Fold this sequence. Notes:
- Chain A has 3 domains: 8-117 and 240-252, Nucleotidyltransferase, domain 5 (2-Layer Sandwich); 119-234, Nucleotidyltransferase, domain 5 (2-Layer Sandwich); 266-376, Substrate Binding Domain Of DNAk, Chain A, domain 1.
- Helices cover 21% and strands 38% of the residues of chain A.
- Chain A has 7 helices and 20 strands.
- Chain B contains 14 helices and 3 strands.
- Chain B has a two-stranded antiparallel ribbon.
- In chain B, β2 and β3 (23-25) form a beta hairpin.
- Chain B folds into 3 domains: 16-109, no CATH class; 112-207, Tetratricopeptide repeat domain (Serine Threonine Protein Phosphatase 5, Tetratricopeptide repeat), CATH 1.25.40.10; 235-270.
- In chain B, α3 runs antiparallel to α4 (78-88).
- Classes of the chains: A alpha+beta, B mainly alpha.
- Chains A and B meet through β13 and β15 of A and β1, β3 and α1 of B.
Amino acid sequence: MEREVKGLYFGIDIEKNTTSISYFDTKLGLPKNVAENENLYNPCPIDMWNLDEKKASVMSHIKNVAKKIKIIAQESGIARITVTLSLFEKEILDLVVTSMMAAGIKRDLITCISHDEAFTYYAYSQKSNLTAGGVMMLDLSEDGLYAMLMSTAKVEKTTLILEKMIDSKDQDIVQAGKREIALSSVSDKILEKVMPLFSLRTVSSVYLSGTGFSLEDFPKDFTKVLTNHRRVFAGQNIYVKGACYAALAGDGNQRLQLAVKHRITSGVEVEIVERGSKKRFRVLYPCQNWYQAKRSIDVIIDDLRSIDVFLIPCDGSTQTKYKLDISDIPYRDGKRIRLRINFECSSDKVLNMEVKDLGFGEIVKSSGVTVKGSCEI
Amino acid sequence: MGKMILCRTKTSTRPLLIRDVGLKVYSLEELAYIIYNNIYLMNMDFFSDELLDFIENGVGEPELATKLAKMKRERADLVSLIVALLTYVDFYTIDEIEKIKGALSTLKNDNVLLRLKTRADACFDHESYLSAVDNYLKIIRAPRDPKLTGIFYSEIYHNAAACFARLMMYDKALDYYKQAYKIGQHKESLDCAILCARLYQGNHYIERDDASPVELKVKRDYEACLDRARLSQEFQDLDEIISNKSENIDEYRKKLDEKVIEFKDRYLRMNS
């Protein structure tokens, strides 16, 4: 059955210096870039966006992007927007989301993903023979070489996409990324860096991106190695198209679960009692982007001085338990304590928890006590 | 061993006022708690349209609201309605609900006037004097039950008078204490009637030379009571606030405001 599309799915890629937009063309069944000459130059490099003096100009830039999107979606409306950023930091993400909301785009239409995730969405939206083995991305830019190897693994009924990566800031490689020296002068160095990844498994396809890879002066030896029993693709719009595929895929019921960088690789559960029986309640699903992974629950506690938080790795390995001490919250009998527990990640490695005493309506006023804790996820 | 119950329903932005206990509830869990701990206050009036609207639209549980409405239409008894609500809300376990079955059974079998008294007494204990007096007056106004003794009715008048007295409506309190004494001939009712007469006139009360021994005793008790009040923690707190007035006027005003709000809240609660 064909999926009913209500509105357009957009991808936005915020690179270091430019911002590009794509949307999913339902007639072609492919993401379509908004003309390249319409790429927007960032008001300053993305790593400066969290500076207070730059925030106003960044907001104005993002509002401008949102305005373009609204013009394109004037007739059909917006189904979802996925933003992928080369720098995935909370302060920058908050600024982007706030700016888009200020431009009149609803919060629940916006998701943010990393470049690693955008590439994964792109690669795994291609024909299956291209992903049968591993899929590699080589990104050569002024920031150096970033290589990602994505591969799948079956865990029970789920297929996980796992990632291995290499990040090189070698001076020669950086220079080649800036196109200050020829690619041929560093191709051996690049191969030396990425060969350990190739040796891990069969790679079916390789994607090349970034200013450093120019097809005009592509070294022959380098080409030979890369194309050895695999397909090689080069393009500068992989991330923005990947973001578009991510928007299309949405949040739920995905065939593949991404356990890549910037995704939490463990599910989070707490133990509850439902109608007298002990049960596990899943608070956060694994393989979510850490920025999106947040949830708030209200609970009633009865003679409980600590909350057990269980971390369940998606690869089936042994679960771990974190004990969150809540003994600072005054004891009350008769279950007269309603707590609000907020779960929020600050990276793909750290889970933060905040427990707030809400009292019990007018029956018992809140003590105002808030307990905080965090653990490695 | 401790446990944690997940709240699956939302809290309402529009609370439901439970008049008999003088409290507003915002969630189903609070509602279950109030019912469970005030089982004698329950009657069919509790399952009002207001309650059903709170359940359906306030906390967003139309399924429960529909179920209770259907039970009401089919003339289900009070116990069934209470059990249906308590079991729906995952707050008390089946074992805990079993524990109050004894109290629930009295809801089915007791004499209506006896149940009204239990309810009124519970309101009195919760310091909800207006609700309490409302229930005592219902008994007084109901046709006299020959199975109930004069002592019962005397107690009802006495308690109604005590409610009025707590609400500082001393003239009414006086009438009801007098009536209680007339029926029951209890000395306590007479003492209270004399005291109310005194309190009703406040500063305009004129001491009589020829006061009866009973009146003199009440006077002595009243004065002793005033002396004791000066030693109470509440009085001392107020005294301390006032004595610090010259040192820090802002702090004095702030603390005085807090006290006034506290008194106001307490009085409003008593009037619920």
